[in-house]
Design brief:
It contains 13 helices and nine strands. The chain has helices at about 25-35, 45-55, 75-85, 95-100, 105-115, 120-125, 135-145, 150-160, 165-180, 180-190, 195-200, 220-240, 255-265, and strands at about 1-10, 40, 60-70, 90, 205, 245, 270, 280, 295. The strands form two sheets. Strands 1, 2, 3, 4, 5, 8 and 9 form a seven-stranded mixed beta sheet that branches. A two-stranded parallel sheet has the order 6-7. It is globular, with a radius of gyration of 19 Å.
Length: about 300
């Protein structure tokens, strides 16, 4: 029984040269048509849980649409899907809702999208040792396969190499120069607690940890905090525990057997990576290491 999980992020009509790569209404409608034409049932979170619990082969093909990052604009996609009798799962990081802060990963996306090309590179070269940064190119290509090698190196340096306090100081200064007050921006950019309640009522909510950190870079104490604080915030806000988690970044540097163990202990029923592929429901499947594809790759997997 194949289970195909397809991930999305930004949902808007505008297109950009860098930083933000959204899908729009027409593209989402076309995705639904492609899946149905190829005999995929577009299911909801409960369908997926039921499939995972079967642990046996079946002829039915199940597709699950996911949206990461808890972005307010994704509610337009949710509305479109519900009006088409289709579902999805929105995986939400909880720190932006609690603290009204913009995640570093989104600061970077926005700065790249709304500033001239090369702006971030020049700022990094002026303030840090980015020009001397060395890393295996294959690792960069695997983690950021939709970006150029140059952009991938930038993102890897910011997400995995720089010290947290240096990243915070660097990005907040640039961000507020371009977009104004961070708290006001975050309040409009992310879901709020009422949105979480709405999504929960429709079985459409999951966790994306607390601060969107790469879990593979954390010690066990910090890992537990990332998992438990998100789980508890969603439970306290909605009255219902999240069923699953989408791992931030989700590639080979961000997941491990140790992380899967802690995810299970924290109360989650499944975990989704960004390791590409189709899941086959059998006794060997690790439900805390589910594979997923990006929407840009859909034509490589649906047929």
């Amino acid at each position: 029984m194949p289970l195909l999980i397809i991930n999305h992020h930004y949902f808007r009509e505008e297109k950009y040269n860098d930083g933000i790569y959204p899908i729009n209404i027409d593209e989402l409608n076309n995705e639904i048509k492609i899946l149905k034409k190829n005999n995929w049932k577009i299911g909801n979170q409960i369908d997926m849980i039921n499939y995972l619990n079967k642990k046996k082969e079946d002829n039915e093909k199940l597709a699950i649409l996911t949206f990461d990052d808890g972005l307010k604009e994704q509610l337009k996609a949710v509305d479109l899907l519900l009006n088409s009798n289709v579902s999805c799962i929105c995986f939400c990081p909880t720190m932006p809702i609690k603290e009204k802060k913009v995640l570093n990963v989104h600061k970077l996306h926005l700065l790249r999208a709304f500033n001239k090309q090369g702006y971030i590179f020049e700022q990094l070269k002026s303030n840090f040792d980015f020009k001397d940064f060395k890393i295996n190119d294959e690792l960069i290509k695997n983690q950021y396969r939709y970006d150029s090698l140059t952009v991938g190196r930038l993102k890897y340096y910011l997400n995995f190499i720089m010290q947290e306090q240096d990243i915070e100081k660097f990005l907040i200064t640039l961000f507020e120069k371009s977009f104004g007050d961070e708290n006001e921006y975050a309040n409009k950019f992310y879901f709020n607690e009422n949105d979480l309640i709405f999504l929960t009522k429709n079985n459409m909510l999951g966790s994306h940890a607390e601060k969107h950190k790469s879990l593979g870079q954390l010690n066990n104490k910090s890992l537990k905090n990332e998992l438990n604080r998100s789980f508890e915030f969603i439970y306290n806000s909605t009255g219902k525990a999240p069923l699953g988690i989408s791992y931030p970044f989700g590639g080979v540097s961000s997941v491990s057997q140790n992380i899967f163990k802690y995810v299970k202990k924290s109360g989650y029923k499944y975990g989704i990576t960004m390791n590409r592929g189709i899941n086959y429901i059998n006794e060997n499947l690790n439900v805390f290491a589910l594979k997923r594809i990006d929407v840009n790759d859909i034509n490589d997997w649906v047929f």
